[in-house]
Amino acid sequence: MTIHILTVVPELLESPLSHSIIKRAQAKGLLQVHIHHLRKWAVNEYGQVDDYQYGGGAGMVMMPEPLANAIDELSKEQSFDEIIFLTPDGETLTQKTANTLSLKENLLFICGHYKGIDQRIREQYVTKEISIGDYVLSGGELAAAVLVDAIGRLIPGVLNDETSALTDSFQDNLLAPPVYTRPAEWRGSKVPDILLSGNTAKIEDWRYEEALQRTKERRPDLLED
């Protein structure tokens, strides 16, 4: 998979994409992430990519020309399965969305900044708009990093144990059950006997029931779906 990211603050993406699972995914050649500084396509020698919004109001808006030129140029090199704009008013990111996007070959992310991007880019280029929650960030870069991580870990071969992703929270609309590690007794609290029994079938039943109970208590809305 290849992911291209358009941003005016590329430095914000360097650390999140250079460590842990995403670093290993890139080292294995399973994922390529290309970060593009939007000012490369600025409208003038001063690197301008934003301007005042029509109708007045506080906040600058990212201009259509730099974004269109960037997308057009990158599209000459590959065809994008989705052009995704990270925005607070997009559809809320879910595990189902991450699963679907992990099956794609080429994705392009647009990181908004300032007051957002010109509506005409959203209408003419963007194929999907995604929000990572009901709150506002300074820009789309951190949201893009979240989306890369959510997608990248699902690519076959990225995780050492490929079944790990299948038991994460929100797969099958359930939260993950409690987990324990050594020692079996710690500060007077013991690991449930069933997990020490070695009976795989009963352990899986226990995990399912615990996941179901936790979901009922914390996220009953997931069971409605």
Characterization of the model:
This protein has 225 residues and is an alpha/beta fold. The chain is built from 8 helices and 9 strands. It has helices at 11-14, 20-27, 64-77, 95-101, 119-124, 141-152, 200-218, 220-224; strands spanning 2-7, 32-37, 50-52, 60-62, 82-92, 106-111, 128-131, 185-186, 189-190. Strands 2-1-6-5-7 form a 5-stranded parallel β-sheet. A hairpin with a 7-residue loop joins strand 3 (50-52) and strand 4.
Task: Record the SSE blueprint.
Layout: E1 2-7, H1 11-14, H2 20-27, E2 32-37, E3 50-52, E4 60-62, H3 64-77, E5 82-92, H4 95-101, E6 106-111, H5 119-124, E7 128-131, H6 141-152, E8 185-186, E9 189-190, H7 200-218, H8 220-224
Parallel strand pairs: 1-2, 1-6, 5-6, 5-7
Antiparallel strand pairs: 3-4, 8-9
Features:
alpha/beta, Alpha/beta knot, Trp Operon Repressor, Chain A, 5-stranded parallel β-sheet, 9 strands, 33% helix, 19% strand, elongated
The main β sheet shows up as:
5 strands, parallel
Q: What's the arrangement of strands in the largest beta sheet?
A: 2-1-6-5-7
If helices are DSSP runs of H or I spanning 4 or more residues, what is the number of helices? 8
**CA gyration radius, whole angstroms:** 21 Å
Main CATH class of the largest domain: Alpha Beta
Could you say what the CATH topology of the largest domain is called?
Alpha/beta knot
Q: Which stretches are poorly predicted, pLDDT < 50 over at least 5 residues?
A: none
